[in-house]
Amino acid sequence: MAVNLNLELTDHCNVCCPMCSQSLRSLAHGEAKSFMAWDTWRRVLAGLADAPDEIHLCPHWLGEPTVHPDFDRMVEYAFAMNRDNRLFRTFKLHTNGVLLQPQRSRLLIRLAASPHQAADTFTTVHWSFDAASATTYVAVKGADHYQRVADNLRAFVQARETAGSLWPRAHIAFVVQPQNVHEVERFVEQWAALLGGTGRPWDLTADWPSHERDAIYIRPLNCADQAAADAMHAAACVRLGIAKEGDVLRAPESF
Ligand code: SF4
Predict the structure, then answer these.
(1) Hey, whose CA ends up nearest to atom 7 of ligand 1?
(2) Total count of domains within the chain
(3) Which of 47, 103, 149, 244 has CB atoms 3.0–4.6 Å from 97's, for a disulfide?
(4) What are the tens digits of pLDDT across the range 109-168?
């Protein structure tokens, strides 16, 4: 059986999305926010060697994993220990990209190309972006990092191309909400130019994309008025030409 395993490196974050349960509460898990200890990471990874199931690992649940002071070392260790995929079959990173500087991108791309594992082990970096302008970024993220994330994302794709690698895929996310719905077309246009520039096919999807290709994906906001959020998301997808009126847009993974 395949098991999706989220190991939360931290529940701290460096932005403050109004939609996020991490940012809405000072005690995200009912206790003070913290960072996973190095020994805990090592012990949990070691335990995966005995798992009877195929592990699909993501070092994130709430919070932003790259703010962990030991993030690079922890990820590098995980890949060093994963010879012949003995610990995990796949690995994906969810990030807001604020701290995914070019040097860190080069590290991740190098780990994805580790020779002692399946080529598609490090499947994806999900970029939680949600804005096509600095003003909207502040409205949906509560911080002024638009240009920095845009620069980091471009550098990531360029570094991967320079390395001649296919992995990890870049998945660029836009969660539709009242503060950003007006610029969903601009968002797609901006990042379509980047992905299209690689010369490889990429996807534009109305929910979680497959890890087979780079993608821009448009998702509904999870909130108290889910019917309204789903309707706003559906209307945006119709405008983008990736859905028709009345389509069911949620991928099975959304539930
Ligand atoms: S970047 Fe992620 S963890 Fe941080 S506040 Fe936004 S949704 Fe929450």
Answers:
(1) 20
(2) 1
(3) 149
(4) 999 999 999 999 999 999 999 999 999 999 999 999 999 999 999 999 999 999 999 999
